Amino acid sequence: MQNCPPVIVLDKNKNSREIIKSYLEQLGFIKSIMLYENYSQGFEEIKSLDGNAIVILDISEKSKDVEEVAENLKLFTSKIIITSTNYSTNTIVRALRLGAKEFLPKPVLREDLARVVTMLASQTEEDSGSESKIITVYSNKGGIGKTTIAANLAVELTKVTKDKVALIDLNLQLGDISTFLNLKPSFDVNYVIQRLLNKEEDILIKGFEKYKNTSLYVLSDPSYIEQAESITPQQISALFSALKKIFPYIIVDMSSNIDPNTLKILDCSDWILFTTIVNIPAIRNCQRCLNLFRSRRYPKDKVKIVVNRYMDNEEIKIEDIENALSEKVYWKVPNNYFTIMEAINKGVSISEINASSNIANNFRDFASKVSDDIIEQSVIKYRI
Prior knowledge:
2 domains; eight-stranded mixed beta sheet; five-stranded parallel beta sheet
């Protein structure tokens, strides 16, 4: 196998390091194997390789340097194998949350290690995007608060996951994401799509505006309304395919219209956070749209009901909504009008206005639940 990246082994146990090294040498195609007992030193080597490394990280032992490296490793490489003598469900979930492509219980079996390393060594950029998730915030009624949810969920996901998150404004005629986050983008989604048509995928990331000192990358709506009219469903599909090679999480804000572009976005989404509020007209609109989703045969776990601006003293209770929709409510976002409006007017996230407010705490918990549930889906393959 040509151009195999170096393999770096971080393991406190000398015997374990040597066994893994011998297994790797038997593969025959790995030219560089580096062993580290000192995780901090190994981490510096990983950073110097600009992501071009396969890392085998053991988390059996709990210590400060192990924890620090484990928490930050996925910022520098996507090819991570995590090992541990503890292979409980909680350990596997933690390993996947840390960015592991595979978890291997110790003692590591030669066949398992060979399979995973061979897979990572031959992995293309397109393959690496196979676990990326497109999460679309949608409502078929305007004024529900989709953009607030999309923007703040994206901000909190970057904190929870420490991954790159893309926030895409596909409300192609009247998008607000850039305004909500006080960004003045040099480029927009129309620019990126045109470059993709010309096979200039390397330009993709340059079309994004980074939100402050975070790993959130924002792609704004077209600068001119007439540009939106030229964007097709096929181009949206190509955009998503390109984004999935780069971003583990893609959050989409979009219009409330039902048209070919809307349907393409919804069809391509892994999750739809279908957003409503607690009043009869909104719930009736929600019922009609759920019927549309069922007619398109979406998997049941693809559509998740989010109730925005919820208050505990509402006359209509969550149980009433669930009975009316024949669906469970996935999440409730509390009503906090003044904090939200201050955030919008200042062009910042809600947590930057008041990190201890009920709604800031809610979005942190929301992001954690989304991340944990995605990981929970991945961990099923490890269960016996």
